[in-house]
Amino acid sequence: MSTLRETFKETTIRMLQTYIQHYIDHHCQRVWDGNLPEIQRIFAQNGDSAYGFFCRKLFEPLVAEIVESGFHPRPLLPGAFPQSVEQWGPWEDRERRFWSVIYGQNEQPLGTLVTSIFHDHTSPRLPRRPQVVQIRETDPIRISDAIVRADLKNENEGEGGATSYE
Asked: pTM higher than 0.90, yes or no?
């Protein structure tokens, strides 16, 4: 049987994952469309850097809200490029996984949020909306192993999976 503390951590990280996915599902298209000329310019000059620019635009307001609510993501959402892994899908629909450990007000780790960014290496396009899942692991080495081995599925995948942004 789980302790109250374990149950609280699991419930909190699950609630954050759901909230963040909902935020992405409702803001992704607007952020993409509103920044498309700059995304296209960056892609033409620096390729995948355009997706980093897009992620900053999408996640910055969300991170501010999360921090204001007393949570501390490390690294900031969606995660840090050097810690991310990309090894799934064809060039037109690649998946790069980022991760961020979420800490509560008492600086105790609650869990890790893994964000999958689906992107196209051939043109500035998101084949699907970013997807966020939560895992229990909070040790960086174990997180990296877990995201490489895991078949990460979002319970709401049908909701956000098939839309393409060009």
From this structure: no
Query: Which tokens sit at 90?
Result: 């064809």
> For the chain, what is the HEC assignment?
CCCHHHHHHHHHHHHHHHHHHHHHHHHHHHHHHHHHHHHHHHHHHHCCHHHHHHHHHHHHHHHHHHHHCCCEEECCCCCCHHHCEEEECCHHHEEEEEEEEEECCCCCEEEEEEEEEEECCCCCCECCCCEEEEECCCCHHHHHHHHHHCCCCCCCHHHHCCCCEC
Query: Using CA atoms, how far apart are residues 31 and 47, in angstroms rounded to an integer?
Result: 19
- Is pLDDT at 163 greater than 70 in this prediction? no
Q: Is 159 exposed, middle or buried (0-12, 13-18, 19+ CB in 10 A)?
A: middle
DSSP-derived letter for residue 105 is: T
pLDDT, one tens digit per residue, over 78-122 is 999 999 999 888 999 999 999 999 999 889 999 999 999 999 999
